[in-house]
Design brief:
single chain, 86 residues, 2 helices, flat, alpha+beta, 26% helix
């Protein structure tokens, strides 16, 4: 099954594919497309199709979680996520 995510980030839109790992964990993956919020429908459609194309493929499960969000956050132009475990 193919799936992609779309985030509205104030003045821009981030679109990326979801891929499943070999243990069925969903991962945000490349290509990451960051478009202006006012992007035309053609540009949004192209980004959506580019995200859906690789999304149905299974990828190896990563050996660790640290740094998995870095490419997505860099593409979005946001600060790193901070995780706290109590």
């Amino acid at each position: 099954m193919q799936s992609a995510a779309v985030y509205e980030l104030g003045d821009r839109t981030l679109i990326h594919p979801w891929r499943r790992t070999t243990v069925s964990l969903g991962l945000a993956s490349e290509p990451f497309s960051c478009l202006p919020l006012a992007a035309d429908l053609h540009a949004l459609g192209d980004a959506w199709l580019n995200a859906l194309s690789p999304s149905g493929k299974t990828v190896p499960h990563p050996p660790r979680a640290k740094g998995l969000s870095t490419p997505r956050l860099k593409a979005a132009g946001t600060k790193p996520e901070k995780w706290r475990f109590n």
